[in-house]
Request: fold
Amino acid sequence: MPLDPSLAPTPPMGFNTWNRFGGNINERLIEETIDAMVEQGLPALGYDYLNIDDGWMAPARDDKGQLTPDPDRFPGGIARLAERAHAAGLKLGIYSCCGYQTCMRLPASYGHEHDDAELFASWGVDYLKQDWCRVPYDEFPGKTHREVAQILYGRISQAIVDTGHPMVLSMCNWGDGEPWLWAQGTAHLWRTTPDIADLYRKPEEGGAWDLVRIFRQNSQLSAYGGVGGWNDPDMLEVGNGGMSDLEYRSHFALWCLMAAPLLIGSDLRQMSEATRAILSNRDLIAIDQDSLGHQAEVREEGDGVFTLSKRLNGGQRALGVFNSTDLAQTVAVDWAALAGPGAHRLREVWRGGEDTVSGRSLIEVPAHATKVWRTLAGA
Ligand code: GAL
Reply:
């Protein structure tokens, strides 16, 4: 039986500990983040998951073979945090891994899939991110990475279904084995790339991927994500300091055009005004969360300038122009090709002004910037 797709009718939104805190997490951070999310009004904007990533479990299973929270860092346990999140109108997510160990070499779910799913369900957990480190490929001789991923993610997916407890499943095997081709029904979201780096463009190849590279890969996959199962180009870095605010505006706008999960990865207890303004842009959130669930198609790519068009409910569209180059560009935008013939009334999402356009316009786009418009009913 497949997972219940109605748990992710739109891309999941919330917060995850990893990008900012890595394995340096504890229950106080989680409690303070619950409070910060509520104080900042994030649930009302749609950010309702608080996801604990790698680093929550004790170094060994207990004498009954169960995963157990680290006694020093999570002495009150996960169930209590889930309760507290629920009381604040949030949902709680947790992390495990398909292999013997997590990427931090803590105990993980291989051979324990049903036990772990039952345990998470008993704690009231609403979301599971399942990683892909320390996978015992040698136990599957002759099988490809894709086949092993289908088996192991299939097991945890079935285990979740068998608990009868609603839980979103986030697959995190970094695009290995092209999960977008087969993961719909197995998971509610699947990573399409290696880890994101908090950098617009990295000086050298290797390791984590920069923003431009992640965008280039994920934007090619618009045929695959959709209602119930989403392409996941990794979590947001907005607010973590490695990019300019203009670059973070591009990051957020591109993720929204691509109908990506929006998991904030910065410290919500000390959010700058600029970060808050980016993450709470209602037009962009509405574009991301549009009920049709379409991912923007890249219509044109010339010399590092991308034009994107995303179908929205009610015959509307979101349009974007991303100038990935290091120089300002004047871009000829063909509104008819992007949004259909005739005149279109548009709102520009950062500036807020409305315009009526038709034919072609020349648009100035600063280096690294993304301009986004949405069409409005009634030209
Ligand atoms: C990686 C994953 C990251 C984070 C990390 C934890 O595999 O892509 O998002 O979860 O493991 O160790």
Notes: Residues 145-163 form the longest helix (19 residues). The longest strand covers residues 91-97.
